[in-house]
Amino acid sequence: MRFMFLLCILPSVYIVYMPYWCMSLTMATDTRKRVALVTGGGSGIGRATAVRFAELGYSCVVADIDEPSAKETLGMLQTPGLAVQVDVTMATSVEAMVTAAVQHLGRIDCAFNCAGIESAPAKTADQQEDEFDRVMGVNAKGVWLCLKYEIAQMLQQEPVVSDPAKWADKPDVCRFRGARGSIVNASSLAGLVPLAYTSPYCASKFAVLGLTKTAAVEYAKDGIRVNAVCPGPVATPMADRVLELSPPDLRAKQDPKLFPVGRFAAPEEVAEAVCWLCSDACPFTTGEHLKISGGI
Ligand SMILES: NC(=O)c1ccc[n+]([C@@H]2O[C@H](COP(=O)([O-])OP(=O)(O)OC[C@H]3O[C@@H](n4cnc5c(N)ncnc54)[C@H](O)[C@@H]3O)[C@@H](O)[C@H]2O)c1
């Protein structure tokens, strides 16, 4: 009788668990150290994120146009990694960064495209054409080039499942948890709302959201997630430079006393959100932008 019962339920067990078993055959289980790549890793938010990735056990590729600062960040990490000099405005340089990361660390699980520059403060009619090109080159084209080469690499990687046992009774979820990679781009609050005197910067950060959401829908079925963060004011060297150069009326608006939380964010507070978006904790989150602005 017990044998008959087993014979009856076995096919249904097989049907329920078959996708998971099939997946186990085609996807690797993720037992190795994960690899994160951070552009703009030599300063501010990028540096804090590389440090946080390393605290979480990732091996890190710290990439920056300023090689000494990238090396300095690497020296702050708890895990072994790699410092790479990159100019995100040049395709050959970005391709070489991705190649170096894969040669040294095997694959790229997560990428944070954080390299960015501010624009000189001026109203639109007073902005210079070469300033527009410079800012769009780093902030928009740079993110596009990073996406292009990172995604090309991720498409070649086997999908990995970080914790198959945890999802064994949810075969559908498990199917989606095979991840080739996760990318986060640095947009800004200025990518969501206008910020006077910063038309090139604002345009570039709105563009980052367009790039993020387009790539997200293009590669969702390949197991590659693409999201963005939109921080408000963060206490970094960039923020110091912006404040110093801003005209008095713009500087007055940046007074932390006017913000709901009453202060700038620490770069570590953005880093934490980036690491969460990159992690396997949010497999259904793609094409999103996360505003981190202390209520602004
Ligand atoms: N600080 C803020 O208030 C704030 C707010 C919202 C968004 N952001 C964005 O966050 C990102 C990081 O900003 P941050 O405040 O840490 O700035 P930061 O100036 O401290 O760091 C930026 C890093 O990018 C690097 N970089 C610049 N041009 C590069 C290039 N062509 N190739 C490679 N690396 C390059 C710099 O060398 C520097 O290390 C930027 O994209 C910025 O626009 C900053």
From TrEMBL:
Gene Ontology molecular functions = oxidoreductase activity
List the SUPFAM superfamilies hit by this protein, alphabetically. NAD(P)-binding Rossmann-fold domains
**Membrane spanning residue stretches:** none
Q: From which domain of life does this come? A: Eukaryota
Q: What InterPro entries is this protein classified in? A: NAD(P)-bd_dom_sf (IPR036291), Sc_DH/Rdtase_CS (IPR020904), SDR_fam (IPR002347)
UniProt keyword Membrane, yes or no: no
Q: Which UniProt keywords apply?
A: Oxidoreductase
Family as reported in the entry's similarity comment? Belongs to the short-chain dehydrogenases/reductases (SDR) family.
Q: What is this protein called?
A: Uncharacterized protein LOC109467322
- Name its species: Branchiostoma belcheri (Amphioxus)
